[in-house]
Design brief:
The protein is mainly β. It is 4% helix and 54% strand.
Length: 484
């Protein structure tokens, strides 16, 4: 009996247990399917310049993301070279708070956070480089949700790294204002700090190789050039020929073309005196001029509209004395309808940019022979009609085989001189009047005609980095050679 009773008790317990079975696993929770939002790059700021070469890049999201998914989804690049480094989640912060309810009369807040993912470069960025930051939709949150399933999704920003242009201070920049008769002095790309007034029809501005002297030509009947120290605290006016305009400098001398008297004056800058003058017995009418890369020759284009196909090559001797080395007449090989408005010397070749034209004529300076003519302009075909633009170019400057030519339509062409080919172009807000480089060529300063401003561009992508207001009628621009 006792045994049977025990068995009955056990069976009863089993029956009771079967009515309330124990779970074999915990209930499955809801799956988080909310996609994260990209809130932007918060460091460096978009368009920031002077970014340190080892700067972190900080991305902000609406929720934490999986750092392991960032490689390939977030790209930081310069000229198709990708920065290498590590991604790491680096916390969050409250960016907004709102009252969602009240309890016992007290507000209840709902907070919005931004969560940070930081890229730390493994090696320094390139100096003076425009970096693009690209975000694609494949980066995921901690639950595996990607930013987007749209294969075209993307976001981007950019920054410009520091370099020679701003290490130890900025190079001073000088702008001639023809209408107001002023010389503007810029300490930084966005601020003019001083103005010299009282100049008479100023036409050109150049700076000595050592950066100590700023020279302005004043195109008047009783022509003179104004020689300033680099701080513009002293000014000496030097009488020259009639109508001084185009200038070049090298070796402590400034060479000034007097367009009305058809002479070139040599100015010794240390003494601020006209030390010699070269006249042309053959009636040559000197125009724009350029010193070669060695600083030993001066190439001068003709300013005569009736005989523009002439170049003079002048040797620069002791004391800056100029003597004629050769005259190159290439009128039998090609025709120029107008005199040159741009001139570049690269190696032993001269590139003569014809005014109001797309043509660039190439001359071998050693043999004194014409090589070829090539053109740079844009064509667009729409609805069977062909539109040509950029074929009225008005100036050209060059550095180390790369030329920048601008047109009346405000198109800036970047040209590779050795291959005679267009690299890229940029349509500006108005046409440039003049362009100048920093000494290392890492920035372009452009005096814009109708915008009354000086714009600063980087030379690889032709992206505008900064701008500064001028007054009116900017004629010429020069960038200094001394910091601060």
């Amino acid at each position: 009996m006792r045994t049977r009773g025990a068995v009955m008790i056990v069976l009863a317990l089993v029956v009771i247990a079967g009515c309330n079975p124990l779970p074999d696993r915990s209930p499955v929770g809801p799956v988080e399917i909310q996609r994260p939002d990209f809130l932007g790059v918060i460091q460096p700021a978009s368009g920031e310049i002077e970014v340190p070469l080892n700067s972190n890049v900080v991305f902000a999201f609406s929720e934490p993301v999986d750092a392991a998914t960032a490689n390939g989804a977030l790209a930081i690049s310069f000229l198709d070279q990708y920065a290498v480094g590590t991604f790491k989640n680096t916390g969050s912060s409250i960016i907004d708070s709102t009252v969602s309810d009240t309890v016992n009369g007290e507000p209840v807040y709902t907070y919005t956070y931004e969560h940070y993912l930081t890229f730390t470069p493994a090696e320094n960025y390139h100096a003076s480089a425009l970096y693009s930051v690209h975000v694609t939709g494949s980066i995921k949150d901690l639950h595996g949700n990607s930013l987007s399933i749209d294969p075209e999704y993307g976001d981007s920003t950019w920054f410009f790294t520091t370099g020679d242009y701003a290490e130890g201070g900025w190079y001073k920049t000088y702008v001639v204002e023809q209408i107001t008769g002023e010389l503007l002095d810029f300490d930084t790309p966005d601020t003019a700090v001083s103005r010299i007034s009282g100049l008479e029809s100023p036409r050109d501005v150049v700076i000595s190789d050592d950066g100590q002297y700023v020279v302005v030509s004043n195109k008047v009947t009783n022509g003179y050039v104004s020689v300033f120290d680099r701080t513009l605290s002293s000014q000496t006016n030097v009488s020259v020929g009639v109508g001084p305009e185009f200038m070049a400098t090298t070796g402590g001398y400034a060479f000034v073309v007097n367009t009305s008297s058809n002479t070139i004056s040599t100015i010794t800058l240390s003494s601020a005196t006209e030390s010699s003058t070269l006249s042309f017995d053959d009636g040559f009418d000197p125009g724009i001029l350029q010193v070669d890369e060695q600083g030993s020759r001066l190439v001068v284009a003709s300013a005569a509209s009736g005989a523009p196909e002439i170049l003079k090559v002048l040797d620069i001797g002791s004391g800056g004395v100029l003597t004629e080395s050769s005259t190159i007449d290439f009128s039998a090989d090609t025709t120029m309808d107008r005199a040159a408005s741009g001139l570049a010397v690269y190696g032993d070749e001269a590139f003569v940019q014809e005014d109001l034209s797309s043509k660039i004529h190439v001359i071998d300076l050693l043999s004194g022979t014409y090589e070829e003519t090539f053109s740079v302009f844009l064509t667009e075909i729409a609805d069977g009609d062909t539109t040509v633009s950029g074929d009225r170019s008005r100036g050209m400057v060059a550095r180390e085989g790369t030329a920048y030519m601008w047109s009346l339509e405000g198109i800036l062409f970047q040209i590779d001189l050795p291959s005679r080919s267009l690299i890229q172009y940029k349509t500006l807000s108005s046409r440039p009047r003049d362009i100048a480089f920093t000494p290392e060529g890492d920035l372009l300063y452009i005096a814009l005609d109708s915008e009354d401003m000086v714009a600063v561009y980087e030379p690889d992508y032709l992206t505008k980095l900064a701008e500064a207001p001028a007054t009116s009628g900017s004629r010429a621009i020069a960038v200094g050679r001394v910091k601060g």
